[in-house]
UniProtKB/TrEMBL annotation:
SUPFAM superfamilies: PIN domain-like (SSF88723). This is Nucleic acid-binding protein. Residues 4-129 form the PIN domain. InterPro entries: PIN-like_dom_sf (IPR029060), PIN_dom (IPR002716). It comes from Anoxybacillus andreesenii.
Length: 169
């Protein structure tokens, strides 16, 4: 039984009826895997309701209700800031090793999602690989739901384990 943290884009892809994402979620639920939704993702989706068709809003509400909620705590604001700061250090090391791709520095919302995955020790389901690359340096795995590829943790102390890039999407 796996535990997954869901990212905003996965909910949008599910609502848009992307077949591979629907299959991933439905097969995971059939195996009794548990999906968690951080408040950050919930409110990102709720803010997008004005852009969605009525049936998409209904589908998004049902999906949100089906997942276990995780609240953002006051201490998570500091952790998100520290995550971004540590990301800057990792980028510096990465550049020093002359890798062709520098990890992206995530925005604040993505930092909250990453901190939730770290705090709860849950792997992240997203197809936004570049913005969550740093999460792998904190011992978490990223699952890409369309291809079902798993990108495991990275030991940043061993420069030979630093991947050059993700597959082109």
């Amino acid at each position: 039984m796996a535990r997954y943290l869901i990212d905003t884009n996965v909910i949008r892809l599910y609502v848009d009826r992307q077949p591979e994402v629907e299959s991933f979620i439905e097969s995971s639920l059939a195996k009794n895997d548990t999906f968690f939704i951080p408040e950050t993702v919930k409110y990102e989706i709720l803010s997008q309701f004005v852009e969605m068709k009525k049936h998409e809003v209904v589908a998004a509400r049902k999906l949100i209700a089906a997942f276990q909620p995780i609240e953002v705590e006051l201490s998570d604001f500091k952790r998100a800031h520290l995550y971004r700061r540590q990301g800057r250090k990792i980028r510096k090391y990465h550049n020093g090793w002359k890798k062709p791709q520098t990890p992206a520095l995530p925005g604040l919302a993505d930092s909250f999602i990453a901190v939730t995955a770290i705090n709860e020790k849950i792997d992240l389901v997203t197809n936004n690989l570049k913005d969550f690359h740093l999460l792998r340096f904190f011992g978490r795995t990223i699952i890409e739901p369309i291809t079902r590829e798993r990108y495991g943790p990275i030991d940043f102390k061993n420069k030979n384990t630093i991947p050059n890039e993700y597959p082109k999407s």
